[in-house]
Amino acid sequence: MAERLTAAWDLTDKERNNTTPDALAVQLFDISIHVLTTPQSGGSYTNCTMMHFVGVLGIDEKTHFWKSPCVFTTILAGLVWMSRLLFLEYALPERAYHGLSGADSPEASRADFPNPLDRLHYIRRKYVRRGSPYALDAIFELLFKGNELRMREGGKVKVTW
To answer: I need a labelling partner for 3 at 20 to 30 A (CA). Which of 29, 117, 119, 145 fits?
Structure first.
């Protein structure tokens, strides 16, 4: 992971490298997919980069306590939505990506796949489902638990005149 971050950082130095923004986008896409597709053995997310990021997102900057379920679940829902978009691009890329490091990395565009729907189902079943050993499963569980707590708490009182 450190090598990927260093390579992405090097691409941002415009004085040393004359790289296109496209190369940086591919590198950031590779880092994002790597974070989402790294399996967690035994269901333990203690060393999971994504879950550390989610934990930091759950801290209120002003109070230094955990955010309320009402606030935090909207953040988690946005994170799930963006992760699903990344997986959609990973499963059916608009164009061929060269240099991605994942085992399931596409080397062709979606137009070149013999059956794109099979590829989409394969990626969805492997990474984007409950019970998988990947970070998105833990985010799903936090989202469901947060929604349960939010429903138990009730909404904010609204007074209209």
So the answer is: 119
| Angstrom distance (rounded) from CA 158 to CA 39 | 43
Domain boundaries, the chain: 2-153
By three-state DSSP, how is residue 39 classified?
coil
Helices (H) and strands (E) in the chain, counts: 6, 0
Quote the CA–CA distance of 17 and 12 in Å, as a whole number: 8
To the nearest 10°, report the CA torsion of 116, 120, 125, 129: -170
C-alpha angle 75-79-85 in degrees, rounded to nearest 5: 145
Backbone angles phi, psi at 72, to 5 degrees: -70, -35
At a CB cut-off of 8 Å and minimum separation 6, what does 98 contact? 26, 107
Contact 80, 141 (CB under 8 A): no
Tens digits of residue pLDDT in 53-103: 999 999 999 999 999 998 999 999 999 999 999 999 999 998 888 778 777
